[in-house]
Description:
single chain, alpha/beta, VC0802-like, Rossmann fold, 2 domains, 10 helices, 14 strands, 25% strand, globular, binds S-adenosylmethionine
Amino acid sequence: MDSNLLLCRPGFESDCAAEMDRLSRDAGLWGYARAVEGQGYLLWHTPQQPAERIADARPVFARTGWPVLDAFGPLPDNRIEALLALLDDVEPVDELRLEHPDTNEGRGLHRFLKRFRRPLEAALTRQGLLKPSGRERCLHLFFTDSRHGYAGVSEGGRAGPWENGVPRLKLSAQAPSRSALKIEEACQRLMNPDERAHWLRSGREAIDLGAAPGGWSWFLASRGLRVTAVDHGKLADGLENEYPVTRVAADAFTWRPPSPVDWLVCDVVDKPARTRALMEQWLGRGWARLALFNLKLPMKQRHVQVEQLRAQLREGLEKSGLRVRIRAAHLYHDRDEVTLLVLPRG
Ligand SMILES: C[S@@+](CC[C@H](N)C(=O)[O-])C[C@H]1O[C@@H](n2cnc3c(N)ncnc32)[C@H](O)[C@@H]1O
């Protein structure tokens, strides 16, 4: 097929489609979306072009995506036999991913897919389809209901590390808030393993603007970073005593660090343009080398606004002589916001 299937948070299909439109045009391709608002996925068609040509694109609003081989369904009672027939000429894959939309109906398939996984994996192994390929190949079977869906294959880790594009993270009992999961997902999704090893290590210093009750500060401090947590609100009990965290009761928009630090993180809920200007100021003046922060999304044209803010930030930082990488994602743990990472180049 000439399509990519993209999974997103329900309600963000049109942003994902608008983004794919821009990415396709940038790649000199033409395409169009087939999507229903609220269904949690879309099909991006590229007639006359193989879907793989745009499979490298990493849209902010897609949690995962991959080229479609075929639609399937209605599957008969012996689903495995029918799927094996469909996959007859597929080359071996390293991993099977059973996926579904992040809707009430989609999540309702979880049990069925859990029971289905073992026998299907056994059948794929017997068929010689599931075995190390050395090419990070994943077979994706995306179910819209228990008998219909789409099959596809991704390669080279392009579909990201997680089934459904949803990280399996466990909240530590020591974490002061669920927000700790958000920064963990951001670090996993927006940094590669080398970057995590480089930046998330003991001895680094971080400022956390809008820190209370302290989930983000805890995440960084529990990895050995020294954190200054800026917030008029209180931090969770014990955070300052048990971890290298110091609280400063101050305004995030006017407080200045006494000396430059490695990390700036910011989870203050404010106008996105104001947050963007604050990040530009900190990085541009060399107060921090890396920034991780949220931008609250407007109600409409979310994709356009995110791209405008990203371009303004890049332009502002370039004027300060900084060469940066800016990565952004609408995380599983993000609702009406996106998370951005600004890394120095080189
Ligand atoms: C979403 S919460 C942060 C949650 C935090 N990241 C965590 O992991 O627990 C936003 C915080 O920003 C703080 N905040 C809002 N405006 C602020 C400002 N102008 N200066 C400092 N903190 C501010 C609020 O007090 C609130 O604690």
